[in-house]
């Protein structure tokens, strides 16, 4: 069967402004114009070519963006320039691309959930999509976005449904885009970015458990996420798939075919 006969859906991991890596990966995937490409966040930040990466993604038909913590920082960093129209026309369009992106996407055909970092234990699929859309509505609206960039930082570390205002927005953002581990009291540990096998606090008393080990059954067949390069793609679970290969740190940029699980990988030359 010729490529192009079947529509494929590729999920692409953390690019971090590495245009060379994205170009190499797209050459290797060689998607048809009917194929769908979803990016699980951290398109920008750390690497050299933020705007060019966004410009390239903007040119891809059927591209879909899920936001990471660095993408949100990028919206904050360039907010004033956007409002004051100090960005070029192309940059304005790239900024708007991120402004209209998602925090979580569910694909019905494969029952796959895409997020940058993770989802809170106990959340239903309906809650996940509804909480994501609460934040998406803030980002899309210039006045609400101004409020968000002015109230950007906060380590709300535990989900409570009764949270309101910016604390609620930040908590939802922290879960979808910053979470890696939860401690014994079910609080997110934002300071820990290392591998799974050394996750004890310094006094050895407080276990840090990857969020996806907190419960056995999640509300969809598979969850694909990025954000955690030190996992090296190993979650120990077939239903929880990490595709952050740490390209910007000299690792690899990873895409996965959502239907077949085939991985397409390019290694950093750096
Ligand atoms: Mn991240």
Number of discrete domains: 1
Q: Order the strands across the largest sheet as they lie in space.
A: 3-2-1-10-11
Strand content: 15-25%
Our count of helices gives 8
Report on the architecture of this protein:
The protein is an alpha/beta fold and 270 residues long. It has one domain (9-267): Metallo-dependent phosphatases (Purple Acid Phosphatase, chain A, domain 2), CATH 3.60.21. Helix content is 31%, strand content 15%. Helix 2 packs across helix 5 (89-99) and helix 6 packs across helix 8. It is globular and about 50 Å long. The mean pLDDT is 93. It binds manganese (II) ion (MN). Manganese (II) ion binds at residues 42, 68-70, 116, 227.
Summary, kept brief:
The chain has 270 residues and is α/β, with parallel strands linked by helices. The chain has helices at 19-29, 50-58, 69-77, 79-83, 89-99, 125-140, 142-150, 165-177, and strands spanning 9-12, 36-39, 63-65, 105-107, 112-114, 181-183, 208-210, 222-225, 240-242, 252-257, 263-267. The chain is built from eight helices and eleven strands.
Q: Which tags fit this structure?
A:
five-stranded mixed sheet, 270 residues, binds manganese (II) ion, Purple Acid Phosphatase, chain A, domain 2, alpha/beta
């Amino acid at each position: 069967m010729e490529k192009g006969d079947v529509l494929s859906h590729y999920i692409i991991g953390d690019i971090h402004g590495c245009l060379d890596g994205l170009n190499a990966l797209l050459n290797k995937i060689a998607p048809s114009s009917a194929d769908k490409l979803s990016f699980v966040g951290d398109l920008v930040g750390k690497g050299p070519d933020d705007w060019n990466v966004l410009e390239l993604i903007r040119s891809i038909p059927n591209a879909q963006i899920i936001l990471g913590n660095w993408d949100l920082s990028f919206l904050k960093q360039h907010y004033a320039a956007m409002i004051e129209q100090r960005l070029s026309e192309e940059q304005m369009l790239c900024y708007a691309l991120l402004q209209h992106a998602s925090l979580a996407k569910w694909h019905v055909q494969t029952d796959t959930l895409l997020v940058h970092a993770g989802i809170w234990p106990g959340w239903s699929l309906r809650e996940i999509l509804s909480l994501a859309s609460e934040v998406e509505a803030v980002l899309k609206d210039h006045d609400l976005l101004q409020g968000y960039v002015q109230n950007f930082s906060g380590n709300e570390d535990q989900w409570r449904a009764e949270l309101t205002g910016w604390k609620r927005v930040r908590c939802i953002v922290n879960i979808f885009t910053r979470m890696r581990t939860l401690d014994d009291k079910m609080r997110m540990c934002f300071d820990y970015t290392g591998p799974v096998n050394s996750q004890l606090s310094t006094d050895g008393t407080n276990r840090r458990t990857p969020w996806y080990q907190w419960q056995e059954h999640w509300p969809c067949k598979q969850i694909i996420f990025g954000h955690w390069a030190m996992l090296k793609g190993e979650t120990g679970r077939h239903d929880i798939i990490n595709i952050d290969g740490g390209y910007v740190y000299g690792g690899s940029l990873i895409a996965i075919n959502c239907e077949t699980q085939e991985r397409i990988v390019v290694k950093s030359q750096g």
